[in-house]
């Protein structure tokens, strides 16, 4: 009779362990437990995420400043290139003024230099 009870006991033991395993599984996956685990995860990772956000905002501000500086420098270079016409005009006027000065100096010393060049409208 002991031999007959053993398979029956094993079957009952298996049923009990299966029910226990199912109960533990349900408890472990209950929504409140999931929410608790989620809250713990957020509490642990939030300070690091906040630091990353602050770092990214600081880098964005630095980048915006650098971009503004580069754009301003490009604008200044473009303005210099555009002003080359005026520099050439000033150069022509200076050459003309030097020529007139030389002519006036020669005339003051009594020489007769060649006729000064006519003023150019540069």
Total DSSP E strands = 0
Characterize the biggest β-sheet.
none
Radius of gyration: 47 Å
Secondary-structure-based class equals mainly alpha
Shape field: rod-shaped
Helix content: over 70%
Tally of helical segments? 3
Task: Note the beta-strand portion.
Answer: under 5%
Given as residue ranges, the uncertain stretches (5+ residues, pLDDT < 50) are: none
How far apart, in Å, are the first and last alpha carbons? 128 Å
Q: What do the pLDDT scores average to?
A: 86
Protein name: BLOC-1-related complex subunit 8
InterPro entries: BORCS8
Family: Belongs to the BORCS8 family.
Pfam family, one: BORCS8
What does this 3D model show about the protein?
This protein is mainly alpha-helical and 122 residues long. Helices cover 85% and strands 0% of the residues. The protein is built from 3 helices and no strands. The termini are far apart. The model has no long low-confidence stretch (mean pLDDT 86).
């Amino acid at each position: 009779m002991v031999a007959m009870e053993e398979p029956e006991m094993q079957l009952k033991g298996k049923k009990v362990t299966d029910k226990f395993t199912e109960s533990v599984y349900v408890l472990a996956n209950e929504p409140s437990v999931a929410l608790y685990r989620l809250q713990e995860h957020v509490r642990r990772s939030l300070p690091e995420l906040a630091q990353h956000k602050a770092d990214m905002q600081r880098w964005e501000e630095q980048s915006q400043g650098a971009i503004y500086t580069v754009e301003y420098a490009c604008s200044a270079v473009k303005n210099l290139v555009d002003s080359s016409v005026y520099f050439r005009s000033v150069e022509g006027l200076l050459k003309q003024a030097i020529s007139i000065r030389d002519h006036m100096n020669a005339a003051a010393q009594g020489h007769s230099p060649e006729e000064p060049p006519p003023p150019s409208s540069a």
